[in-house]
Design a protein that fits this description.
By secondary structure, the protein is α+β, with helices and mostly antiparallel strands. It is built from 3 helices and 7 strands; from the N terminus they run αβββββββαα. It is 68% helix and 17% strand. A 5-stranded antiparallel sheet has the order 6-5-4-1-7. It has a two-stranded antiparallel sheet with strand order 2-3. β2 and β3 form a beta hairpin.
């Protein structure tokens, strides 16, 4: 009777040693309402926790000790429970809760994204309006610039024409001054000629008056007699 107990003790020790070597992994209490947690790998050991609710997340310290698994709670409490109650996936209720939370998160994110999209659309519409307004202003400015260029070209042409007219007017004025000076000279010359002619006529008359009596002196004396 001693040998089976010795073999059982050795197997238990090997199981504990092997469980310590295996890296701890996270698992969940299977879809059962409550699972008691015991101090040893048997239903004969005392209960250290009256019952773990389905979906409770636990850390497996030793995965298989005679059909039991040694686990550790988040509070640090350790104990044994039948490994058939463990599953590597969360139960449906936990999955549903997580899915609902994820759905709520995604719905909120969707709403935020939709609001951002609406703001972007509004900003885009505003930018389109600003762009169209700027484009219209640019077109009007281009037209005004073209008109100014045309006016400037006409102004340059008029200015050139005015300069030419001023130069022509200045030349005509100079010519007019020359003509006036020439007229004055001719007028002075004409007056001088008239004086000379008048003087010549007077002198001629005097000469005639002196010469005629000398030509016919007899007739003069006869008339006196």
């Amino acid at each position: 009777m001693r040998h089976p107990k010795l073999i059982q003790s050795l197997l238990l020790s090997l199981g504990l040693l092997w469980g310590a070597i295996i890296e701890a992994q996270t698992m969940f209490i299977d879809d059962t309402l409550f699972v008691p947690l015991r101090s040893g790998p048997s239903t004969s050991f005392r209960i250290v926790h009256k019952g773990l609710r389905s979906g409770t997340e636990v850390e497996v310290v030793e995965p298989d000790v005679e059909g039991f698994a040694k686990i550790r709670l988040s509070s640090g409490l350790e104990g044994f429970l039948p490994k058939r109650y463990l599953t590597g996936e969360p139960i449906a209720r936990v999955k549903l809760t997580k899915l609902e939370q994820e759905h709520a998160r995604l719905s909120k994110q969707y709403q935020q994204t939709r609001e951002q999209l609406d703001k972007l659309k509004a900003n885009n519409n505003s930018l389109d309006a600003d762009y169209q307004s700027t484009l219209n202003k640019l077109e009007r400015t281009q037209q005004e610039l073209t008109e100014i260029k045309n006016i400037s070209a006409n102004a340059l042409t008029l200015d050139q024409r005015n300069r030419e007219l001023r130069e022509t007017n200045e030349q005509l004025r100079n010519q007019l001054e020359l003509v006036e000076v020439e007229n004055m000279r001719l007028k002075d010359k004409s007056e001088s000629n008239m004086l000379m002619i008048g003087g010549g006529l007077v002198l001629l008359g005097v000469l005639i008056a002196l010469i005629v009596p000398m030509i016919n002196p007899t007739k003069k004396h006869d008339s006196w007699a």
